[in-house]
Design a protein that fits this description.
Layout lengths: L1 E2 L2 E2 L9 H9 L12 H6 L11 H17 L13 H13 L5 H21 L11 H5 L14 H15 L9 H6 L6
Antiparallel strand pairs: 1-2
């Protein structure tokens, strides 16, 4: 099973609804390294067995966080070592490069990085149905374990994807509107 050509990691997204959304919308495919969305499921921040549209904001924030970590070449295993990640990321950047950024600018950089990944995929043929999970995950409930009988429905996944697009301020089909590009100061021509 794969998403955008990348096979799923070793976690079953039917009982980790935030991760399910993260895998479906990831520009890279079913990658748990470009988003730490699963952390919300494991932490108890959300009910991991029930999806809702609020997951969109959780996934978007996690993707932006991961983009900044990656751009600073900071190991993901250090992600919990920060007290105020974006402010501390700005300080790291300033010490290494001399470039002065605020925490808010670093957060925005994460959003810009992720939006550029999306634009690359659109240029290369991304379509709205690309943000999806394998049908088997939507047809079969979990057969065993503590989440036995839990499944992921098409309606549940569609609702979470809509919430994600809303959180990103993209259109209802997942395309980045011109006003968002202007806000992020991303030139497309």
């Amino acid at each position: 099973m794969q998403v955008k050509g990348l096979e799923l990691p070793g976690y079953d997204p039917r009982s980790l609804k935030t991760m399910a959304l993260g895998l479906a919308v990831s520009p890279r495919g079913a990658c748990h390294n470009r988003s730490g969305a699963y952390e919300a499921d494991f932490s108890g921040e959300v009910d991991r067995l029930r999806g809702d549209s609020r997951r969109g904001a959780v996934v978007a924030a996690s993707e932006d966080f991961a983009a900044v970590l990656d751009s600073l070449i900071v190991c993901k295993f250090l992600r919990k070592c920060f007290t105020d990640f974006y402010a501390e990321a700005a300080e790291i950047l300033a010490r290494v490069t001399g470039w002065e950024y605020t925490g808010a600018e670093m957060r925005r950089a994460g959003e810009r990085i992720h939006t550029l990944k999306k634009l690359f995929n659109i240029r290369e043929g991304w379509r709205p149905d690309s943000d999806w999970l394998p049908e088997r995950l939507l047809k079969e409930d979990l057969p065993t374990g503590v989440a036995r009988g839990v499944g992921l429905s098409r309606d549940e996944l569609e609702g979470m994807i809509r919430g994600y697009y809303e959180a990103r301020e993209w259109d209802e089909n997942g395309f980045v509107p011109e006003r968002k590009l202007e806000e992020l100061e991303i030139a497309t021509s």
